[in-house]
Write a structure and sequence with these properties.
three-stranded mixed beta sheet, alpha+beta
């Protein structure tokens, strides 16, 4: 088939249409986030996001807005590559994908990095975003085989191996796990002593949920937040983050913890904004990013078996943490081989040290993007 050539006017028209679509998507996000300072809406998003913890907050929310019953999405060719065909007439779900260009790779001193042949190594730099089309599993034929049913758990019993997996993760993060008296609380995290405590006189499932909650604190709090964690003025938002992480992780393990999680949610963003209503959307976005990032980090360890989502080429989101220090990425940062030939573009970024700092969403490995 001959390549199609566009005139300058046609290219400008296409660019304008893309800009308008991106602006419309941003407006959709802004309108939906205005409703999140509410218990029911926040719970609905958390329940939805259990299937999309590999996606950024913005893209997860865009999928929910357009297809609230979606459970597994991928691009048109990704479905074809797995032997499925999007049905004729199905409407695409629009998400945001990065526009990248190749630039020389620089080391920490700002100097070009060369390969073994003396040629400059290249990396990709983010220059913008564009709409991308994905389709839900309900829009393809033949339908993929159903996921095997989860085992029915006895009341109060945690999924087999989940506690041990969480304990491994706790040790990996440099914390000592202790079970015993927690001074009347279900658990605690001491950043000073490097100890996570879980009370031992509650049932196994409650202990497991408590440990996920405490790991939620570890993964959502930067250095500055850890210093102020004990101050009462900061704890409300921190508890919403940690409880939300616990809810998403347990939902992914087929356990509903809503009776514990949503005792305190309504008005949390307004309280965190402390009277400055202009910051509410900013707090909701940052909180959503932290929750989905932390949940992904925990689930990547507690659910190591490949899923249908992992097997779909552009639905997979390889775990890449973008450095938050402001320095240039070094050759070592990018030398793990994940960038070359990687088909997926959606990643999860490390939570920022401040709830008001820029939060990364859609990205190519090693690249951050605010959307």
């Amino acid at each position: 088939m001959a390549a199609r050539h566009y005139t300058a006017a046609q290219r400008e028209e296409a660019d304008q249409a893309r800009r308008e679509q991106i602006e419309q998507m941003h407006q959709q996000l802004a309108e939906r986030m205005k409703t999140f300072d509410d218990r029911e809406n926040w719970q609905n998003w958390l329940t939805f996001s259990r299937n999309f913890h590999r996606y950024s907050f913005s893209n997860c929310l865009l999928i929910q807005i357009q297809a609230p019953h979606a459970t597994l999405v991928a691009g048109y060719r990704a479905w074809q590559a797995k032997g499925h065909q999007v049905r004729k007439g199905e409407k695409a779900i629009k998400v945001m994908a990065p526009i990248l260009r190749k630039v020389p790779l620089l080391d920490s001193a700002g100097n070009p990095v060369f390969d073994a042949n003396g040629d400059p190594r290249l990396t990709r730099e983010l220059v913008g975003v564009k709409p991308a089309s994905v389709f839900d599993v309900s829009q393809v034929e033949p339908p993929p085989p159903p996921t095997p049913p989860a085992p029915i758990l006895l009341q109060g019993q945690a999924p087999p191996g989940l506690w041990d997996s969480l304990a491994e993760l706790t040790a990996k993060e440099g914390f000592t796990l202790e079970r015993g008296d927690c001074g009347g609380a279900n658990g605690f995290t001491s950043f000073d002593s490097g100890v996570i405590g879980v009370r031992d006189d509650i049932d196994e499932l409650a202990q497991t949920k408590t440990l996920i909650h405490e790991l939620g604190h570890v993964y959502t709090m930067g250095p500055a937040e850890r210093l102020t964690y004990a101050e009462q003025g900061c704890r409300g938002l921190r508890e919403v983050e940690a409880e939300s992480v616990a809810y998403v992780v347990l939902q992914a393990h087929n356990i509903d913890s809503s009776q514990y999680t949503f005792n305190y949610v309504a008005g949390w963003a307004s309280q965190a904004a402390r009277g400055d209503s202009s910051k509410i959307d900013e707090i909701i976005r940052a909180t959503g990013e932290k929750v989905i990032t932390a949940a992904h980090r925990i689930l990547a360890h507690t659910q190591p078996e490949p899923t249908a989502e992992d097997e779909l080429i552009d639905a997979r989101a390889d775990r890449v943490i973008a450095p938050r220090s402001g320095r240039r990425l070094t050759a070592a940062d990018r030398s793990d081989g994940r960038t070359a030939g990687l088909a997926s573009w959606e990643t999860v970024a490390e939570p920022s040290a401040s709830i008001h700092a820029p939060v990364a969403t859609v990205a190519q490995p090693g690249i951050e993007l605010r959307v």
